[in-house]
Amino acid sequence: MNRSTRRAPRRLRRYVVGAVLVAVVGATLTTLAIATDTFGAGERWISVVNRIERLMAGPPPDRATLETIRVTEPPETEPPTPTPEPVKQAPGGSATPTAEPTPTPTPAPERKPIDYDIVQHPNRVFASQHHKDWCAPAGVQTVLAILGKLDTSDQTQIEVASRVRHWEAWKDSHNGDWGPAAMALALDSYGAPGYEVRAFETLTYALRDAAVAIETTQSPAILLAWRGAHTWVMSGYRADADPALFRNTKIEGAYILDPWFPRISSIWGASNPPGTFTTFAELQENFLPWKRPEGRYPDRDGLWITVVPTIPRGEAG
Fold first, then answer.
1. FRET partner for 309 with CA separation of 20 to 30 A, picked from 5, 61, 103, 190?
2. How many structural domains are present in the chain?
């Protein structure tokens, strides 16, 4: 055996060892990059995992879920019901009015501007979405943090996001992801029962209804923004009167915690910091009627969709 023949196995071993070291170092750096989201590696890895999970899970199950409740706006005013005057039969058969004590009228509520927000320190309860597609679990997490049910850590959000298979249904989300009913079911599962999915024919009534729900329950509401593609948490509002007392209240804007912050959307622009007062004009641009590309939703298409609380915080447990 000549020298070149003896050196060949040694070179081969060095190449193999070098390749193994490169693979190990590469895997370590990849894991580190994913863990620290260097250059977006963590987000891309989560996207790959999500796609694989969806392929393995198959289409969303066609099972029963929460219904979307269509809410029709009542008239602003109702005609008063006349109260008949009591009569007393006088001697001789003629009817004369009976003298009764005049009841003290109930004072009419005072109409005055209101600025209402149940969250005083939004940064303490805000959860930014850990992944670009996780606005729904981040919104659920933010609601639960406001209610004192969860923290705002990435680990908690990952855990919430991983449980979507417990609540998904084809009727709620044709693409096998989070829909508003899944959000309401998730809130119930984590100790915030009583949330309903509602649909409205107008933006103004959707906002008034959400404002009343927030005020009466001391709990935040969810708005399905960007035609149903995004989740906003609404914690309060400004109006020219109390919407719980006046049906024709004009909502001037809402306090919003947007899970997209601090990201910038190529379509919708930069998101606002948590707790920002969002004017009615900005709400008109973002909180739009439901329209999803994956198919038709007969009980939602063309309507404004919200997820609102119905049980006062102290009674919800």
1. 61
2. 2
> Are both 53 and 138 inside the same structural domain?
no
* Residue 310 included in any domain: yes
Strands 264-265 and 269-270, by their bridges, are antiparallel
Helix H or strand E segment including 197? strand 196-200
Q: Mean pLDDT of successive 10-residue segments in the chain (317 residues)?
A: 50 48 43 46 50 59 96 69 52 56 76 97 98 97 98 98 96 94 98 98 98 98 97 98 95 98 86 97 97 97 98 85
Q: Which long-range contacts (CB under 8 A, 24 or more apart) does 171-177 make?
A: 171/62, 171/65, 171/297, 172/60, 172/65, 172/66, 173/60, 174/60, 174/292, 174/294, 174/295, 174/297, 175/60, 175/294, 176/54, 176/57, 176/59, 176/60, 177/54, 177/133, 177/136
- Same-domain check for residues 133 and 255: yes
